[in-house]
Design a protein that fits this description.
Order of helices and strands: HHEHEHEEHEHEEHHHEHEHEEH
Number of domains: 2
CATH superfamily of the largest domain: Type I PLP-dependent aspartate aminotransferase-like (Major domain)
Number of strands: 11
Structural class: alpha/beta
Distance between the termini: 50 Å
CATH class of the largest domain: Alpha Beta
Largest sheet: 7 strands, mixed
CATH architecture of the largest domain: 3-Layer(aba) Sandwich
Radius of gyration: 21 Å
CATH topology of the largest domain: Aspartate Aminotransferase, domain 2
Number of helices: 12
Length: 366
């Protein structure tokens, strides 16, 4: 099924259930208790187990993923669920050394003290690495914030050959631009806080997978741990998903244009964008993605120059997230990422590209 068909199906996922006078947008239902004269055929019993508004957004995400989906109150809640449901004490997990730092903190503060061995690899080294001994291989491709890519299908084959599960954090791409489950991943995690919700006003995450037993365990984790999303957050995500494809189209197109122009700018160093033929990850990205995304990174000559650029760029918000309607940038070294002091992660929003470029160019001038 093509991405266009999946998105069209997602938009009309309620069509067959609509009666005359029903709302096209799903109602916001925040009830925690339900009428239960008996339990037979009761879809909803208690708010910690399931809610109607969760069910609607999980159905949408399931169409995009082509898999079972369990929603969570944040991307990190989804990551935690996937890891805790896949690992036992004294097993080994491989994590990206250059990926999202909070995943490493979770492993260091909670998995390691429980006896889980944590092995760190740079994303660019996954293709050559030996996974022997691992029970779970966790990767990001592209990595956040460096945007290195690795071969997901190869990682899946190598992980399965040694009896390990492959978990892929697909936050930067979404299921519209990259499909790790189709490439052999056992689980996909994503922070829907980013592009899927898209308006910088909701925390949400999900886990998706095609192994019924494993996904049942993920659902049980959510119910027993109480790591449940709110109905209003689910409703907001549903709203955001309705425009995901058109927003991504604009954002990716603008990112390509801006990256091509930055590549020729004398102040820009170490530019990374998978859509550039000169990028080290371009060949892998072209093979396993249907688009190159809206994120790029680059360096300016110093911390001071980077902060000056972020302050002066008129159409840039200084935030520690990405994927929203507003273009956003931040100097990632302030969070402790192993990057140069002048390293900037840049998320392209939905602004018209020429005014956005004019603002970028002006902010780069002396």
């Amino acid at each position: 099924m093509t991405a266009d068909r999946r998105f069209a199906d997602m938009l009309h996922h309620r069509a067959e259930r609509l009666g005359r006078g029903d709302s096209i947008s799903p109602p916001l239902i925040s009830a925690t208790t339900y009428h239960l004269p008996g339990l037979e055929n009761a879809q909803f019993t208690y708010g910690r187990a399931a809610m109607p508004t969760w069910a609607e957004v999980e159905e949408q995400l399931a169409i995009l993923e082509g898999a079972t989906v369990v929603g969570f109150p944040s991307g990190m809640a989804a990551i935690a669920a996937a890891l805790f449901c896949s690992l036992q004490a004294w097993q080994e997990v491989i994590l990206p050394a250059d990926g999202y730092y909070t995943t490493r903190l979770l492993a260091d503060r909670f998995l390691a003290p429980m006896g889980v061995k944590v092995r760190l690899l740079n994303t660019r080294d996954y293709d050559e690495a030996d996974f022997t001994g691992a029970s779970v291989v966790f990767l990001e491709s592209p990595s956040n914030p460096g945007l290195d890519c690795c071969d997901i299908a190869l990682a899946a084959r190598k992980a399965h050959a040694v009896g390990a599960k492959l978990i892929v954090d697909n936050t930067t791409m979404t299921a519209l631009l990259q499909r790790p489950l189709d490439l052999g991943a056992d689980l996909v995690v994503a922070a829907d806080t980013k592009a899927p919700a898209g308006h910088s006003d909701v925390l949400y995450g999900h886990v998706s997978g095609r192994d019924a037993g494993l996904m049942a365990r993920v659902a049980e984790w959510r119910k027993l741990s109480g790591s449940v999303p709110g109905a209003f957050e689910a409703w907001l995500l549903h709203r955001g998903l309705e425009t995901l494809e058109v927003r991504l189209s604009r954002m990716c197109s603008s990112a390509q244009t801006i990256a091509e122009r930055l590549a020729d700018h004398p102040r820009i160093r170490a530019l990374r964008y998978p859509g550039l033929p000169s990028d080290p990850s371009h060949a892998i990205a072209k093979r396993q993605m249907s688009g190159f995304g809206f994120l790029m990174s680059f360096e300016l000559e110093s911390e001071e120059r980077a902060e000056d650029f972020l302050t002066r760029c008129a159409y840039l918000t200084q935030t520690t997230s990405f994927g929203g309607t507003h273009s956003a940038g931040e100097r990632r070294a302030r969070w402790g990422d192993a990057v140069a002091p002048g390293f900037i992660r840049f998320s392209v929003g939905v602004e018209p590209v020429e005014p956005l470029w004019d603002a970028i160019e002006a902010a780069l001038r002396d």
